[in-house]
């Protein structure tokens, strides 16, 4: 339960420490206006009522005060020394309690009392014996306050500048903006409702949900959470920032990712001060339907043979280009020096890291000048009857595979034989068999085994051309542009 002090903060600053009877009780208030700002050096009207038995019980004594707040917004008064409007303070039989103190205020100094709060007396101002009187503990830091928790006085540490003192679950608490931290009585993972099914090695495209019930919410704020799965790896559970209901409610947990195996994925949740383990069953892998079909192999000018795949109405190479000559037999220069590579404006190729062993897996890397007829002497690096695909032709492919957001999963080679990371989203249902050949930059080679980059024939600007990228553990294929001198992989498309 949350109660924000907008106008009044009541702090009992002292009670009697002896068994002697007294006709007064010291009392202090810190006064704030309805914007939460201190009311300083101003006359304030106060009405105090002592209620018997319950917080809405009969008033056995009522008095009023007119006091001036100090420079810190503090008003000091004595209960039993005000202007009496009913009852007699000295005749109250405190042994017949419980008693409650009702406090009302008019921050304009009049009698228009609009803000009230009722607080139970846990220590009375005088008693029949000394052991029945409570002693208020002293603070140890400037600005420290004390409150009664039902069994003992507890110090309330000094809040940070800008914080608001707010009653959260019946206790004064420093908060940001008067918003209590969310809490629940119970978090019921075993009763969660799960939507959708999860299959091993299959990416969750749009996010599934689990509806997690809770009881005893306090109406406070709950921050967002992101929890990785245990048991079956590769999944995550996300809770968006929210406000916990007063009473019972439901948290929506979003499940995303690609499970690495079948079994049970567990998420260790800590929400509203309670913990529980949310479990989702992961089914055995479902065989992905094959979208592509193999076509006849094609051979380049040097005799390198390539698998091909028919995807929709297009026929693509299913391997990266390895040729070192144009299809008319003219050699394409190979450049190993980084500075020489960077300064080129004509065609060239290289092995990744200048290591011929990488040609077997990933093929060669080409600068864009080797692909462009304007800069390569109107030549073609692809076999006769084939060409380097344009951006539009790549778009036809990715659209057929279900858009850029999910195409890469259907185009990447499955497993980690050539992809170094988990690559758990890959199905290669198109048979494109995308490989992570990395790239060459002006100062060296990068990202082999983790990322694949392919040129298009489409120029972006004077120094840049368009390419497509695939990444380990990402379902999407990305269109971007790179310097024309970069070395990227090439796939050819049949005319």
Count structural domains: 3
Question: Overall pLDDT, averaged?
Answer: 85
Q: Give the C-alpha Rg.
A: 38 Å
Q: What is the makeup of the main sheet?
A: 6 strands, antiparallel
Beta-strand share of residues: 35-45%
Output the number of helix runs. Answer: 4
Question: Based on helices, strands and strand pairing, what is the structural class?
Answer: mainly beta
Which stretches are low in confidence, meaning pLDDT under 50 for 5 or more residues running? 1-22, 124-137
Shape: elongated
What portion of residues is helical? under 10%
* Total strand segments: 37
In angstroms, what separates the terminal alpha carbons?
Answer: 71 Å
